[in-house]
Protein: Sulfate transporter
Amino acid sequence: MNLDAFRDYSLHNLKKDVLSGTVVGIIAIPLGLGFAIASGTSPVTGLYTTIVAGLLISILGGSRFQIGGPTGAFVPVLLGIILQFGFENLLIAGFMAGILLIIFGLCKVGNLIKFFPQSIIIGFQSGIAVIIFSGQIPNFLGLHNIEKYEYFHLNIKEIVGNLYLVGIYTIITALLCLLIIVIAQRYFPKVGGISYLLGILVSSLVSSFFYSNQIETIGSIYGEIPHQLPLPDFPKVTIEKIIYLLPSSFVIAILIGLQSLLTARVADEMTRSKHNSKKELIGQGIVNMVIPLFHGIPAAGEVARTVTNIKNGGSSPIAGITHALFVLLVLLLLAPYASHVALASLAPVLMVVSWNISKKEQFASILKEKSGHSLILMVTFLLTVFANLTMGIGAGLCLFAFMCLRKRMKDNQKQLKKAI
Structure:
């Protein structure tokens, strides 16, 4: 735990932390459910991840303001792994990613984040936003039984080919939820992320009262949500599994590192503080080794919840711990009610989240430069959307390295001409 956060700590700070943690906990519940479903797993895994990761990241991380849990950045990667290898192998890959993160931390790989160009970061974040948004179109339209694919274009083709199956009641529910979120955030900005929960509650209540038999719910698709944490358990690991899951675990580790360090950097800029990147990576590594034991998906620091924490006065890890305990309390006391949540109500939440993380202004700004970074941006973005995140980031880094090498060669030629 970051002990510097408790210098001159007072009862007033404690009250602020508890209040902020509660607000963030309210926001984390619909996001945890939504990200888990979008990743191809059951909704409750999102709550398990929020509780375990939220608690441990606050205790072990290198940023006093960091709030951790399941994030949108992982959705396409986790969905691809589950479709290809299954959920149990995702748990193994997540555990291996934790080991890699500890190695990254010990080798001080976190210092390399400053060398990542904005064009790559904006490119893959915008690509992820497109994938999350498009992935919610079936839930928005009521196309719950269509086939899911690893690739964007195949999913779009599947949606278009099944448009005749759209459900009018599903669309009404989704539109109602979207309308509530947009109005709340537009006219009551202080409500912030709580608008997500408000939209889900109102639209789900309307659907259950007026057309309960015409719409799919979490319970009808995934069964009732259990009201306790699972006992620690882990799937059988073999050398063969380790070998073929290593590339996936490496991608997960890179994503966790990038997401967490970028979030910590945002928190530093907002609070004029300084995080410990080595401690952050090692902490994230330990956390992601523990999460699979409780059937949770990979987790990292998350920007929206961390920013909400800071804006609500959170100043120490107590806020993050409170947020995790709040979600645990909801799981223990209110889990059966979550089964009645309409799946159509979760779709607008993730669509709005994807819109907010799309970095559209920065994307347009870099594109207008018409420079080498514009090319890196588009290559990273297009490959992230139409291939996968690994190819997107890899191609972006290769192009960036080529640009740096070319610039270095030109500089050397200029110096040589001056010397002659």
